[in-house]
Amino acid sequence: MTNGTTQQPSGPVTALAFDTSTATLAAAVVRDGTVLGSVQSNAERNHSVLIVPEIKRLLAECGLTPKDLDAIAAGRGPGSYTGVRIAVSVGKTLAWAWNKPLLGISSLEALALGAWESPEPAGEGTEASAARSAGIVWIVPVMDARRGQVYTARFAADEEGGWTRLDADGIRMAGDWAEALRQEAAKDGNVSAIRFVGETAPHEALYLAGPAGGAEVQSIPCAMEAGAVGKLAVSRFRRGERDEVHAFVPNYTQMAEAEAKLLAAARRD
Q1: CATH number, domain 14-108+225-268, options 1.20.120.80, 3.40.50.11740, 3.30.420.40, 3.40.50.2300
Q2: Disulfide check for 153: which of 108, 163, 177, 187 has CB 3.0–4.6 Å away?
Q3: Comparing C-alpha atoms, which of 183, 182, 192 is closest to residue 215?
Q4: How far apart are CA 12 and CA 234, in angstroms?
């Protein structure tokens, strides 16, 4: 939910951004398109313990205090049920305590943008030193959702700076999703590459299982970059968008397994 639009700022916009939807605790301070500092910690079980100390340390290293921030940006999922709740809860708490605007960012879009902006993508189907593919590239972020499923979406990027969402965040069967994208790219004819990025290892064979016409299919493992969360948030901020703090909720995409079992049991009673 957004509060509508507000007057666009004329000066630089500084955002504290963080995401805990994956095994990586990622935090960054972003000023417009520049990452002033960032943190990546691969300690999934300790996200709730580490996030506030890491944020404090990050701000100190950047020489900033809360009053220097223009906005708080939190990855709102989808992803780990517990992880998504941590980032959303911390985002709401800091925005309220520090009286700062709150902006929720799709964790999948941040994962995709971070992979696209990485200078040297490396993985199956691509050379480590390869430059960005010419033409339209589909960036497909994936997070393992178990039982052959992935949290995923699709974005189109190009060398001219274009960035377009093509599919909504959702949970899909990894093999069916990959096959559908390969077939669509083959029919389209204008797609130079399909890049599956993020938690690619569990289903990599499915992503690379067949041709996609003239498009190169790539599997590129990568971790969440909070700088991408911040850049997406700054763009929203400059458009005058804000999220209402008390109404801000995670995007789980699907019901948590425990809740689904409880609901199913209730329906049987």
Answers
A1: 3.30.420.40
A2: 108
A3: 192
A4: 10
Please name the helix (run of DSSP H) or strand (run of DSSP E) that holds residue 152, with its range, or none. strand 149-157
Q: Are 245 and 72 in contact (CB under 8 A)?
A: no
**54 vs 57: CA distance, rounded Å:** 5
Give the containing element (helix H, strand E) for 102: strand 102-105
According to DSSP, the β-strands at 25-31 and 14-19 are antiparallel
Three-state DSSP class for residue 257: helix
Residue 254 or residue 149, greater confidence: 149
**Token pair of 11 as six digits:** 């000066």
What is residue 263's three-state secondary structure? helix
Say what the pTM is: 0.89
Round to whole Å and give the CA distance between 34 and 63.
15
**Residue 118 has what pLDDT?**
86
The third-level CATH classification (topology) of the domain covering 119-221 is: Nucleotidyltransferase; domain 5 (3.30.420)
**H or E element at residue 89:** helix 81-98
Cα dihedral 246, 251, 257, 261, rounded to 10, equals 60
